[in-house]
Amino acid sequence: MSIRRLPPFRQLYNAVEALHESRRMLASLLAGRDQARDATLREDRERDARLAAIDARLRRLDAALSAAQAQPVPPTPCEVAEVAIHERLGFRLLLDRQSTIDRALIEQHGWEHEQLAYFSGLVERMRGREGALFLDVGAYWGLYTLVAHRSGVFSSLLAVEADPHNFAQLQANLFLNDAARVVRCIHKAASLDARPLLLRDSRSHPDGNRGGTGVLPPNTTLPHVTVPATSIDALLADVTGEPRDVLVKIDVEGFEAYVLQGMAETVRRHRVVMQVEIFDEHAPAAMAQLQRLGLVQIHRLYPDYWFTNHPDFLPAAT
Fold first, then answer.
1. Low-confidence ranges of the chain (pLDDT < 50)
2. pTM for this entry
3. Which of 19, 177, 189, 315 is such that its CA lies 20 to 30 A from the CA of 34?
């Protein structure tokens, strides 16, 4: 029999074994603690390194922003876009910065202030008149049409524009202002009959004014497009029944006399108030035709004139 099995050696042996086991367990616990501490230290060092890298990037970004603020900031592409949507005069308008009228709206927030004020007064005087009609001849992109539409005065609105680029812009602006289904757009030139005409390409206008394009003679060498034509009488042939109150704006760059010849029946049948742009070089022919139609001048803001055969708009007899 082994001496380790005899009392009191057995108890002593067991105590020594228990002591060794306790030392092994303590060593294991201490090793685990050291490993955990080392892992924590590594994590701390890695975290500190990441934070230092982030801080360095933020410092570089701050330096770059400070340097940028010291330099003039160029306009963003949206601010200098040639064609863009702008909020002007209470409308959302697609405007072309290269065109004179559009640029005035963009930069000065207005165009033809006095003419539009007088026009708006005429619109208000037509309020409450059943079946009132507005006709915009040479509408460009539709400023006067939009003012007339917004008033809610007119049961019918027609916009006539011959130039393809201007007509596309007109349709865009009607769409942007919820007027596309209300305004009837005519992609033709107003004239005395339906014979096609040569129209100067609006993009080639020497002053950059796409709204200033006009009809050209048959032998022209200028950039142009061939456009269909119609008379105002033909356009309004389906307006039957009682005479209507008709407000007309005509801006056709020297072609006024031909447009007026093509609306003799309209003037005869209806009560017309008319705004016509007439430059001095075109005045003799245009004024002669207005006289033949029996229209009376009631106002002038050169180059715009106003005429009427409407008894409610004629000046009082002196």
1. 75-79, 318
2. 0.74
3. 19
